[in-house]
User: Which sequence fits this backbone?
């Protein structure tokens, strides 16, 4: 039968399925020019959800190292370093770049042995194969967390409706950096709802790695050499409601809408507007959680705010956790009165609010 070798660019699940559908054997091959092209190979089966780049070919070595050049455990992300007879001598007339990318081999006793620093982010799977997750220069630091964008892309790409995807950190408003996922859906499929995509990502990724916005494109912009042109990716459009605006119906919803408006810096919040569609992210979710706890004296797990993403559902969640039936509504009514009173009246109402918390 036909043998297909796919290399030069990361192999997508969709392309792998198309190639396998024609019969024959499909191999995912990986390797930069500096290691004489192919350095690893992996046979791709019909049902493979992951697409590993495999194991090293004969006379080549693969090391997954951290920033201290220590070998990382199985499953932990690191940079891929390649050794073996396939390494190039260096870059012609570029001794500075050669010194930067080629280094003495720290694990070899052979004189003159070297490793090539690929700049590729990988992890070793339990079966010994390597999984490619993107470029190291696509690593970002967001609100104190170091995030590998390739790790998010790898999980998102396994969604059955996703044909191709790219994730990047954007700061379209000063001081408000957030993750945005750009998605091309499979031919003939409708774009999944935002909630469905977040639900797909949540079991695998921590909250701070969940994209705050999803943008659907017909195709990803490419550079002349066929790479994704991240600089050409569009700014997420202003939110347009898919349903009619619904105002608050209870005091709890009215207070929550005010909190959302303040935290998200938006003028109007509907009861069915999604927190993340309005520009929310993990830090703003933590601020929201803090305000809810401060006003309603209800402690909610932070993850619950990634599930109750509208004012209406969050209001239901707060009422479900109240110590006594109707307590949250009473607190909200008092809070509304406090907002528009003088200092002396405010102090009296605060005492009443405390009594609602303490007494049935």
Assistant:
């Amino acid at each position: 039968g036909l043998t297909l070798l796919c290399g030069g660019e990361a192999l997508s699940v969709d392309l792998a399925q198309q190639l396998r559908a024609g019969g024959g054997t499909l191999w995912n091959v990986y390797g930069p020019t500096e290691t004489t092209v192919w350095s690893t190979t992996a046979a791709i089966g019909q049902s493979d959800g992951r697409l590993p780049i495999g194991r090293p070919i004969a006379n080549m070595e693969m090391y997954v190292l951290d920033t201290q050049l220590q070998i990382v455990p199985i499953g932990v992300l690191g940079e891929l370093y390649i050794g073996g007879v396939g390494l190039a001598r260096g870059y012609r007339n570029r001794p500075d770049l050669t010194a930067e990318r080629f280094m003495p081999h720290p694990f070899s006793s052979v004189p003159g042995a070297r490793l090539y620093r690929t700049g590729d982010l990988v992890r070793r799977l339990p079966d010994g194969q390597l999984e490619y997750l993107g470029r190291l220069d696509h690593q970002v630091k967001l609100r104190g967390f170091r995030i590998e964008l390739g790790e998010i892309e790898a999980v998102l790409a396994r969604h059955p409706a996703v044909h191709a995807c790219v994730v990047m950190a954007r700061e379209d408003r000063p001081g408000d950096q957030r993750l945005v996922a750009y998605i091309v859906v499979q031919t003939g499929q409708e774009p999944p709802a935002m909630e469905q995509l977040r639900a797909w990502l949540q079991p695998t990724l921590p909250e701070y790695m969940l994209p705050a916005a999803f943008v659907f494109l017909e195709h990803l912009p490419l550079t002349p050499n066929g790479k994704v042109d991240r600089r050409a990716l569009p700014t997420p459009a202003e939110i347009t409601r898919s349903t009619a605006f619904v105002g608050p119906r209870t005091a709890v919803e009215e207070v929550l809408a005010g909190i959302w408006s303040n935290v998200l810096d938006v003028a109007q919040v509907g009861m069915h507007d999604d927190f993340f569609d309005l520009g929310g992210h993990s830090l703003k979710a933590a601020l929201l959680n803090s305000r809810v706890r401060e006003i309603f004296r209800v402690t909610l797990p932070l993850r619950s705010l990634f599930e109750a993403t509208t004012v209406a559902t969050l209001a239901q969640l707060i009422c479900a956790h109240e110590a006594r039936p109707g307590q949250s509504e009473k607190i909200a009514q008092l809070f509304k009165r406090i907002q528009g009173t003088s200092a002396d009246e405010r102090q009296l109402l605060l005492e009443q609010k405390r009594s609602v918390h303490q007494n049935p």
Remarks:
- The first helix runs from residue 13 to 21.
- The CA atoms of residues 34 and 304 lie 48 Å apart.
- Residues 342-350 have pLDDT under 50 and may be disordered.
